[in-house]
Amino acid sequence: MAEFVGMKVGEWFAFYVLDRLVSKVFSYFSGRCDLLKGVEDMLRDVEDRLPRIRAVIDAAEGMPVRDPALAKWIAELKGAAYAADDVVDEFEFRELHDRSHQRGKVGELSSSAHKLLAHFTFSDEDLIKSLKNLVENLDKIYADIGHRELKLDQYRKDKKEATAACRETSSFMLADKVFGRDKETQMMLDLLLSAGEPADGGGATTCSSAAGSSSGPGLAVLPIVGIGGVGKTTLAQLIYNDPRVAQHFQLRRWVYVSDNFDVKRISKELVHGGIADPRFVDISLDEALVKVTDATRNERFLFVLDDVWDERGIKWKELHSALTFGSKGSTVLVTTQSPVVADLMGTVEPIELKCLEDYDYWELFEHYAFGDQDQLGGSKRKRLQLIGREISKKLHGLPLAGKVLGTLLQSEQEEGYWRSISESEWWKQELALDSILPSLGLSYQHLTTNQKQCFAYTSIFPRGYEFEKEQLVHMWIAQGFIQFDSDQRTRPEDSGNRMFDELTNRHFFFPTMHNKFVMHDLIRDLAVYVSLDECYVVSEWPAKFPATVRHLTLNTDNLDVLRDVPKFQRLRSILFFREYDSSELDEILEGILKNLKSLRVIDLSHSGIQIKKLPDAICDLSHLRYLDISCTGIRQFPKQFSRLCHLQVLNLQRCRFKKIPEGMNRLINMRHLYAGAETIALIDGIGRLTDLQELEEFRITRKRGHRIGELKD
């Protein structure tokens, strides 16, 4: 068998950036014959080579790659593209500098912009030197392209292009239909709806006989156990949202747990239902558990703990101690893949979900593959059904696989397309590695190139993390993943929202109970796989950072990991997902920001960081576009913060600022400012931020920059 290396993602980004580099440099040097002469030949060479580079990218993009040398070549090409992206950024800074300088009458904004841009930008000689180094690197990559083309011949023969157009979608999600689970559903409803009711003298129901009576004293814990993708969460959602269940229980909460059984976080969500509460930021674990006890005392509650992995049970015992004061019939519903967890936590016999039987599975698959489309002719539908049955048999009764692949097939109901899915090399056993279901890989392959990049980036979130649509779209835009037509007055946010809806419609993202979204574990495994270590979540020590990492999430409180981060100077994203309480953190964060000059995304909102002031080094991050310091103790900006001209998103929610440095109105690319009214009122001349898309609250005064007329743009 051929060695299976992996799938490459984001090659479209390499071509897009290189093409953009050529046009940007020509535009910048036009009219400067002395400088253009030095770079024109280099650019013409790059321009001439782009079609051949594109041909190799098109052949390799999204396909399984068995050749390590080919994988290495594409990685080098992408590395060059990232370097080119930084150079393009510098040219954009120079153009902004020149435009502000040429306005003639230099007002406060333009003169200040001129000074701060001068701090950042290279001289023309530096720019040309960077460009030459980049082109030399591209020369080396291009010299090896002939070998790559030969290797790709086999992929070209097998590859079937995804020709289906993306269907129009919306953010409104229809409730999932559940197939083949009638027996389990009725058992669970019988158990829950009898919870807390007086026992029937005529004897227990069939459900109670199997699972034990829940009308007795103590907390009932009902596990749903089964392998990944079998439908545990879907069944739990069906039960949770049943109107009879909603009426029966006085308090209901849903918490996605995953492999991090964080008792304090879970307690917060049980009390507040996922709604952020600043009073929970600085409290101890004991105080959090007391709040859970107070919230549940004498209440009949139903809590769902989804996707639990804690097989030791220590943390569950801590949480359990706070859940024993509810009314009779209170129940915790647990979904898990682990029989150990089910045995450890359960007080009643677990509901064991098996893969669906053939009849039920075909009903599910047909629902997603054909939908409600009655326009298909009888003979055509029969032919598609024959192919569909071949495909459904390869999915082994897993509902998740049926939903994802069925949705893909519904997008193009042509025999040739369905046959290409049925005969794809993804079904070969040699490719079914690392728990990646072939059906999911197939669905990924048939995404557009742009969708692939956005999907892979989502692996930057830890397993089980519930993310907001707006948050992820802003991150995509910050990384340059969203293409939009400025001439057609299309906002990047609109393009990003459509991208998000398309991925959600294909079941790559699932909505949660908190108006957020999450990736199923198997879907996230695929995202991690296709990112090939460009996105990396550190959760333990010692950590082995891959050399290719560009987007890093720190899900560990080990400071030694943080001290290693400055070595990876090519990082473009850094997210902190653990709370830190150390006097050394100020110095460590300063070192990180001082060395990572290519950062475009920084998120400190989950860190609970209590330093008073953002480090001065952040002012030198000329590429920074997204900064989230919400829910931190930061109260002061560096004086030169207004240097960050590329900054598009700034989140200051639940931060307590008493003073904002002058010049914040010079952040002329700011599109989204999330802050309380008190903080916004501190920003002088906020009306000059004409790219702002919205403000949650704006206090109108007679002061310049705060008049109602200044919000007209």
UniProtKB/TrEMBL annotation:
Gene3D superfamilies: 1.20.5.4130, Helical domain of apoptotic protease-activating factors, P-loop containing nucleotide triphosphate hydrolases, Ribonuclease Inhibitor, Winged helix-like DNA-binding domain superfamily/Winged helix DNA-binding domain. SUPFAM superfamilies: L domain-like, P-loop containing nucleoside triphosphate hydrolases. Residues 219-373 form the NB-ARC domain. Keywords: ATP-binding, Leucine-rich repeat, Nucleotide-binding, Plant defense, Repeat. GO terms for molecular function: ADP binding; ATP binding. Residues 460-527 form the Disease resistance protein winged helix domain. Residues 17-102 form the Disease resistance N-terminal domain. GO terms for biological process: defense response to bacterium; innate immune response-activating signaling pathway; plant-type hypersensitive response. The keyword Ion transport does not apply. Residues 592-711 form the Disease resistance R13L4/SHOC-2-like LRR domain. Belongs to the disease resistance NB-LRR family. This is Disease resistance protein RGA3. It comes from Ananas comosus var. bracteatus (red pineapple).
